[in-house]
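Researcher: Re-running this chain for the archive, since the previous output was lost when a drive failed. Same request as before.
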Amino acid sequence: MFRIRLVAASALAALTTACAVGPDYHRADATLPARFTGSAGEAPPAAELATWWDGFGDPLLSRYVGLALQQNLDLAQAAARVEQARAGLGAANAALLPSSAVTGSAARARQSVETPVGQLLNAQPGFNRWGNAYDANLAVSWEIDVFGGLRRNREAVLGDYETSRAAAVTIRLAVAAQTADAYIAVRGLQARLEVARRQVQTRQDLLAKVTLLYDKGVASESQMRQTDGELAQAQATVPVLQAGLDAALNALDVMLGTSPGTHRAELESASTIPAVPRIAGMGSPADLLQRRPDLIAAERRVAAANARIGVAISEYYPHFSLGALLGSVTTLSSGNLFKDGASQASAVLGLRWRLFDFGRIDAQIGQAKGQEAEALAAYRLAVLHATEDVENAFSALINRREQANVLVRGEDALTRSRASAFAAYRRGAGSLIDVLRADETLLQTADARVQAQTELARAAVASYRALGGGWTPQAEPSVAAAHGERPVSSS
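Model: Regenerated structure tokens:
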């Protein structure tokens, strides 16, 4: 009884203040370091985060990313989910407004004379067994949101809608990054195939020279067999690289929303691996909260879960509704419809109060609070993972750049060494085998350098993705403003 009095007193207080029950939302705290421990390094030119793919200086890469952002089917699905959430938000807004319906009917019936009513009517002179019935009504109903349950539900659905929008942007970033990654993989595999074919040719030349020496009795059979085995090893790498290239080309076509093989002819001619730009406007870890859409989506899930606590708490209080009916009904003829005698009207004040159901309401509130706690933990974990992504991407970028630079220097040194061996061969001071062996070592280093440059470019793509590059938060319209609503508090 005391609890009922307490709820009744709270209901009276809410009636006078027209407040919304439940906790008001405040943006969740997240622990972030003051700065990133890694550094993106220096490499001109700089690329803006919003259009980072243009910074690679490859027009074909930029065109493919643009096509993917227009045609990718994952993005099409995400856009459809946003439209579904938008419709749900419209329904939540409509729930706060009165609803009305116009109904009408016309019926013609023949009365049985075997029923008691029919026998009574049939006894009257001039009774006509056929009768008509007409009615037209306007009904209006409105649930008065005294305690804010509907408003809290609108906040929750608004959070769901904003989550879907941020999730769509997350997919957009993933599509851009995966498209660039597939393109870089194509260029890297093409470069490796070129090196592998040169390796095959070099080992074929080496085998021919060793075989000639073997036939003259200068080289041993084991040397010839070993050289033949090395040739087979080099030849075996070509189909593996070709299979990888085919898979990368097919993956790129799928990212562009086209059938595999669509852009193969356009990419047949090998090109250089895109040069890695410097990251401009890297920002601080705190900037990730506004820049990475996956974190925005996670934070909006917390806001939606918080609002649903208020929805559950509102069930403690009575729900009031108003209903009205205005219409006309006649069973004589259509000529009497809308006449004074056929008019009808009613007004209803409704009350729904789960007065003796507080146990279930307590359980629903507990469930809502648990869901909010889960969403909050997921948000904080997402923030930690986001920082981890950036740190790992920067580490890969720095170390891959160092590896590529070392291999470039090594390739330069081996190129000079090969030139020296060839010059000695021309003077008669060295053998062709020495030249071919120098070529083989040089090509192995060239293959390692190509792999390092490919991974460096892919690490740059991963860095841009980890930073949330590829969209501009300021360019996104306010969802609340677009629907004429006050934004949910985030202070």
